[in-house]
Write a structure and sequence with these properties.
alpha/beta, binds nicotinamide-adenine-dinucleotide, globular, 284 residues
């Protein structure tokens, strides 16, 4: 079991050499960067998304990195689409070793005004889509003898509330919980399951809020590191979790968020001065 799960034995940074990784939502943003990083670390890629033109562009990145790419239209809310994606990968490459359940959407509305369809649309893609991706991949991994890795994409919103995106926050909290359940269920099969909870990352999903001066500035000012994260920084965490460098980690959620979840508030100049006065008084 897990004979294909190579460590970076050669020390050349190719921790995913010989692995076949499925990435959903690979046409854009985090999913595209994860596919490119996995290819750079030696994996062949099986990629699903609703946006086939975007998938073609990601496939070119994978091929440019010297790896094979299989891209297919796949709606993660449909089990049959995921089954045909994973089966196509297994048929083409002989095995599937990694699933990154990354596809996600936002569809926000104030809590009192959110209708059922808006609620369900996000739960369907962001939570049910992750459950189906994990289950379909795990069934393939078990059928091929066990061993494998699943990486679910959650969010800092898994740990926070939102007045305008209660559906998104609930779905992401669900992903973090599902990650624990799947990790317990799949550990006997040698399959590790972890999640990533990114903070404010520069992707097409966040472009409207990044470009809105009040919201964008506030999100950045609430991030202790004082900037957005890049998709490459999310992909680096995904590659770590997918590799044997994380061989004793399962059921965890790792947060590349620049410190956002520290619940940090930059003290005003006035507050800073009051602290300094207190300190001076104590020392006097
Ligand atoms: N950008 C951020 O700040 C941020 C922060 C935390 C978590 N995330 C999560 O990262 C993941 C990727 O988001 P992103 O920022 O790269 O957004 P993005 O919009 O750039 O990419 C999302 C991709 O998912 C695809 N997709 C949407 N619905 C789908 C479906 N039903 N089936 C298949 N594919 C579908 C889209 O076509 C798109 O290519 C999401 O799960 C998102 O919630 C993003």
């Amino acid at each position: 079991m897990a004979a294909r799960q190579g460590r970076d034995a050669g020390g050349d940074g190719m921790r995913l050499r010989g692995k076949v990784a499925v990435v959903t939502g690979a046409a854009s943003g985090n999913g595209r960067a994860i596919a490119a990083r996995f290819a750079a670390e030696g994996a062949d890629l099986v990629m699903g998304d609703l946006d086939v033109d975007g998938l073609d562009a990601t496939s070119r990145l994978v091929v440019d990195a010297g790896r094979a790419a299989l891209g297919r239209r796949c709606d993660v809310t449909l089990a049959e689409d995921l089954t045909s994606l994973v089966s196509a990968g297994a048929e083409r490459f002989g095995h599937v070793d990694v699933m990154v359940a990354n596809a996600g959407i936002t569809n926000s509305a104030p809590f009192l005004e959110m209708d059922e369809a808006t609620w369900r649309s996000v739960l369907d893609v962001n939570l049910t889509g992750v459950f189906l991706s994990d289950q379909v991949a795990a069934r393939q991994m078990v059928a091929q003898g066990g061993g494998g890795v699943i990486v679910n994409v959650a969010s800092i919103m898994a740990r926070l509330g939102s007045e305008t995106a209660s559906n998104y926050a609930a779905a992401k909290a669900g992903v973090e919980s599902l990650t624990r359940s799947a990790a317990m269920a799949l550990a006997p099969h040698g399959i590790r399951v972890n999640a990533i909870g990114p903070g404010f990352i520069d992707t097409p999903m966040t472009q409207p809020i990044r470009d809105e001066p009040v919201i964008g500035d506030q999100l950045i000012s609430r991030t202790p590191m004082g900037r957005m994260g890049s998709t490459e920084e999310v992909a680096a965490v995904a590659a770590f979790l997918a590799s044997d460098d994380a061989s004793f980690m399962t059921g965890q959620c790792v947060f590349p968020d620049g410190g956002f979840l520290l619940n940090w508030a930059r003290p005003s100049q006035e507050v800073m001065e009051a602290f300094l006065r207190l300190q001076a008084q104590r020392q006097a």
